[in-house]
Amino acid sequence: MTEPLLEVKGLQAWYGESHVLHGVDLQVHRGETVTLLGRNGAGKTTTLKSIMGVLRKRQGEIRLSGKDLMNLPLHHIAYAGLGFVPEERGIFSGLSVHENLLLPPKVAEGGFTLDEIYHLFPNLAERRNSQGTKLSGGEQQMLAIARILRTGANILLLDEPTEGLAPVIVQRIGDVIRALKAKGMTILLVEQNFRFARKVADRFYVMEDGHMIDTFRADELEGRMDSLNETLGL
Amino acid sequence: MVTVFGISLPALMGQLLIGLINGSFYAMLSLGLAVIFGMLRVINFAHGAQYMLGAFFAWFLLRYAGIGFWPALVLAPLGVALVGVVIEKVLLSRIYNLDHLYGLLLTFGLALVIEGLFRHWYGTSGQPYSIPSTFQGAFNLGFMILPKYRAFVIVASVVVCLATWLLIEKTKFGAYLRAATENPTLVQAFGVNVPRLLTLTYAIGAGLAGLAGVLAAPVYQVSPLMGQNIVIIVFAVVVIGGMGSIMGAVITGYVLGLVEGLTKVFYPEASSTVIFVIMVLVLLVRPAGLFGKE
């Protein structure tokens, strides 16, 4: 197997005095879509935030293409190639859709062009001059993803992209993720919606109480359904 | 002679002009305060001292280096902006995680120290700063005499406010500012150097105060107390406009200057309190200010 694009070893994290991640290990290879599964409070979002550096009180090892991210200031981590789409979407109300799209600086060559983005998300093109937060929940999620595609980040960290969205929008987000996969994009996805995750992921990690308790490939999923039912309460 | 409500037109227009001049300074100063508060969430009580520094820097340049008004209009605000960089890097950057009250107390203390030092060195009587030769004299508009320099101050203030508004609303830097006002962590996670953005914002706010100070030097005396006298009114302007609202600060600055001028004509006894009465009324009806978000 080739070297992983993203490698996390022994990651621990704290919210104040509260110790929430207890030695998380994970790897994501180039072109893979990897999903973190787990119940509410299992530590999935915290893992993503710790990798991105948004949560600073953390220990362990985080490497992207072999480069140590642990001691980089937050604004340097994006330039290493990580693109972050937060759970709350982070659409700026003071900016139009177009301004939201253009906000993140380009961190590398090879990102999507505006034309490509508006082709992939035609709704955004139609509403490019609207205030970002005037969009529907689904459109805001599209905008949050589109915004990062422009930057040239080589791995997307998507935190619960389907949360609170109507089934038809969830399906559309699934189509977008599959389109990104087809383009060779690497994705680390946090998702509670197991039915959605199973359609897009190549590999899964399962988290519980801040620990990584299992990992398996998509083709091993059927054999894990019983234990997943128990862990995730499906 | 033409009269309006029993007041002669030249007298009325003269007071309106004074109101507009004051409003120009209120607008420039409250704009800087609004920019700083919007981004840093710091209530910058040192703003009056920075305005005073701008005027003094212009006076220093003239007195000790023979550098006149026009170069000083650029150099003095840059000097004040540099002082702003030091204040932000050395002091303010350490208190962002604390309650807003600490920023207010810190900048209030700074203002006392800066103004105290200048009072110690230069007394309170004030230093003269002449009107640049280009703007000596006045325009006769028929119904009033308009001193050229005062006309320049009004135009300059409109240009400065407009340029700042364009910077914030129409540039990439402005988009970063507006976004970082809402969610600085996410903007930094996108790769924007937010700590530097904070420093720059404070420097721009301080520089605007310094620029207002240079423009004020030929109108008022260059005095260590000039900042104290105006900063309380400017805070009232910002509160009425809505804390952090750029447009609110500018419009309210001009309007309240005019209201103050009109009050001087029709009910002079209330002219020094009218802005504070308006502030109380606005806070009762619209606590977030006229242009602030509820």
UniProtKB/TrEMBL annotation, chain A:
One of its GO terms (molecular function) is ATP binding. Gene3D superfamilies: P-loop containing nucleotide triphosphate hydrolases. The keyword Transport applies. It comes from the Bacteria. Keywords: Amino-acid transport, ATP-binding, Nucleotide-binding, Transport. Residues 6-234 form the ABC transporter domain. It holds the Pfam family ABC_tran. CDD domains: ABC_TM1139_LivF_branched (cd03224). Belongs to the ABC transporter superfamily. This is ABC transporter ATP-binding protein. It comes from Camelimonas fluminis.
TrEMBL record, chain B:
Signal peptide: none annotated. The keyword Repeat does not apply. It is a multi-pass membrane protein. Keywords: Amino-acid transport, Cell membrane, Membrane, Transmembrane, Transmembrane helix, Transport. InterPro entries: ABC_transp_permease, BCAA_transport_permease. It is found in: Cell membrane. It comes from the Bacteria. The chain crosses the membrane at residues 12-35, 42-62, 68-88, 100-122, 151-168, 200-220, 232-259, 265-285. Its main location: membrane. Belongs to the binding-protein-dependent transport system permease family. LivHM subfamily. This is Branched-chain amino acid ABC transporter permease. It comes from Camelimonas fluminis.
